[in-house]
Structure formats: structure tokens, C-alpha cells
Amino acid sequence: MMTDIQHAKTLLIEGKLVAIPTETVYGLGADAKNPSAIQKIYAAKRRPATNPLIIHLPNPDAMCDWALDIPKIAWKLAEAFWPGPLTLILKRHPDVPKIVTGGQETVALRIPNHPVTLELLNQFGGGIAAPSANRSGRLSPTTTEHVREELGDAVDYILEGGPCTIGIESTIVSLVGPAPVILRLGSLSAETVGSVLGLAPETLLPAVTNGHTTLETPGSSTSHYAPSKPLYLFEHETLFNIIVQLMQNNQSFSVLSFSEGLHAMLNPIVAAHSKWIAIAKEPKLFANQLYHQLRLLDKNESECILVEMPPNTSEWLAIRDRLKRASRPWA
Ligand code: TXA
Ligand code: MG
Q1: How far is CA 198 from CA 175, 201, 309, in A?
Q2: pLDDT tens digits, residue range 285-298?
């Protein structure tokens, strides 16, 4: 009998799509050297062909097969954080199919920290290109159920690895410019990355305003990581005013807040269709629950989702970034 990992490996070799567990979110994987397999990823996700994919590697030495002119700091970061939630942007090796890099001359590399996927990578030997296993623009999946919901039959096999422990996507650091730059914040903060490089966090986030990276990575269009129903973000005080306003209009809503539910004060009509989730006050736990909770709220009967904005401090920056991308302005 073949183990799940052997089966996944066979499918990758055949040019099929395999969803893979990682510590951040589930990925939609294919053989990074097989252009027609990569084409299937873009089709399954309905992702624009210009938005490049991350290549997942079995070990740091494999960087040499995918990148050129690898700077010393890449090895330093790899040693400090791989396997882990860090993606490095490097100069593309000419053997990397252009379809993987969305036509760019750079390449994104990462070693994920998940025993099942590390074993698959070691057995497969090559690189696995894998974006998050969701339809383009939607919330990343953190369980196999989410992957099924998002992709259904478009994925040939889903490798079970349990719920993702981190729950938000990797931190992306570009090493192709004159100085390292964080393109997307994830669970590794600018402080953590900076401490290894001996750089002040601000220098890694030159274009961050209000916790939001304005530097463009191809997939950082503002509407991203979003549920289907409208999501609105409010500071604590405003949130309660908005709730009163919605109740007066008999409009149902779901809430993700640091405060306990106010069901007692909701009128019965609104209460029947509304849901209140008191979310973790600690950033790592919050990140771990975020996409799962948003998916639950997206499926219930309420008309919109209201989220209380976490504090504007460095440990919340990545979460604030995702919430801003998931939200729309309150008209
Ligand atoms: O945690 C993660 O990073 C997950 C797991 C599966 O590894 N992957 C993930 O992939 O989030 P994806 O494709 O959903 O997001 C990767 C981001 C995209 O915004 C893409 O535009 C950017 O990385 N990216 C990929 N290659 C790039 C490159 N060469 N230069 C700049 N940005 C790049
Ligand atoms: Mg994604």
C-alpha cells in the first residue's frame, strides 16, 4: 500500500495538482519544473498569469538550483528561519520556467516547516511551486476542508496535515534590491528579521504607512484575502456605535471582537441572524483562528462582518495588513 506521501509524489511526477499542508496556510502544489502542471495552478485558482508563485524547497542548498547571485544574507536568513514562515525573493536561475515567476526575473523560495510536506519535498527531490490553495483573491485555507471548499475537483489530491499552526501567510523578504525589503509581513516580524541581519526594523519596511506595505508585490492588490460578504474594520469605540446603528435598522451582522458578545443587548430579530465571536487577544492565537473564523462568519445568515481593529503595535502589523486587505470602506 502506498502512503499518502508516495501517492502525492507520484501525482506531482505525473504533472498533477496536490494540495500540501504547511505551517502557514495550505498550498496548491505542482512540479515547479513542469510548465503545463504550473499552468493548471493558475487555471484552478483563476489567478492572473502575471502573479508569480513561491517555490518550496527541501533544503537550503537547493537554492542554488533556482536562484543566481545568492547574497550572503540569504544564507543567513535561511539558517535562522528555514524551515519556517519566510519567503526569499532572489534573482531567477535561467532554468526556472518563466511561467512560475509570472514572467519576472526574480524567484520566490521557501522551506515550509511541516513534517508531511518536508517528507514529500525530500522524496520528490525537486521544487514544488505552491501558492495558497484558494481561488484568487479569497481567504487562504488553513484546513483540508477549506481547500475542498475553495477548489473542489480542481485539485487532484489533498495531502492531510491537520490545521495550520500559524494560520497566516509567510513573511516575504526581497533580496534583489540595494537593501533587503519586506514585501509582505507574516508571522515573522520586521524586528525578528532585522535582528538577524543587524538592521533596524524601519529600514526593512521603508514603505509602510499605518502598518500597510505600499510596496507592490504582484499579488498585493488591495482586495485580497477577503470573504465574499462585506467586511468592515472599526476601532473599538466606533464598532459599538455601528452596532447600535445596524440594530436600529434591523440589519443582521457578525462580529469579530476582543470584547465578549453583546447578545443580551441585541433585539431578538437581529440576534437570530447575527453571530458574535470573541477572538483571542494574543496575536499568534488571533492569526491561528482568523481565516477559520472569517470563513464561518462568511457562511452564516448575517449581512456583513464587523471586525474590531487590533492595536497598532508591531506584533499586530501582519494581522492588521490582512484585515485591511479583507475589508471595504464603510460607506
Ligand atoms: O505562506 C505562504 O507563503 C504560502 C504557503 C503555501 O507557502 N504561500 C502563499 O503563496 O501565500 P501566494 O501565492 O498565495 O502568495 C505569494 C505572494 C504573492 O503575493 C506573489 O505575488 C508574491 O508572493 N511573489 C511570488 N513571487 C514573487 C516574486 N518573484 N517577486 C515578488 N513577489 C512575489
Ligand atoms: Mg495567496
Answers
A1: 15, 9, 31
A2: 999 999 999 999 99
User: CA of 255: how far to CAs of 7, 241, 250, 306, in Å?
Assistant: 41, 13, 15, 5
Tell the residue number behind the cell numbers 468592515, with chain if given. 232
Ligand nearest to the CA of 225: 2
Instruction: Decide: 33 and 127 in contact? Cβ < 8 Å.
Output: yes
pLDDT at 218 over 60: no
Cβ atoms of residues 319 and 286 within 8 Å: yes
Cα(243) to ligand 1 centroid in Å equals 36
Atom of ligand 1 nearest to the CA of 186: 1
Q: What lines the ligand 1 site, CB under 6 Å?
A: 22, 24-25, 27, 51-54, 87, 89, 101, 104, 106-108, 110, 112, 130-132, 169-170, 172, 183, 217-220
Query: Would you say 84 and 113 are in contact if contact means Cβ atoms under 8 Å apart?
Result: yes
**Residue 121 phi/psi, 5° resolution?**
-60, -40
Q: Are 291 and 146 in contact (CB under 8 A)?
A: yes
Q: Give pLDDT tens digits for 221-265.
A: 556 789 999 999 999 889 989 988 998 888 999 999 998 866 666
Predicted TM-score of the model (pTM): 0.94
CA distance 87 to 35: 22
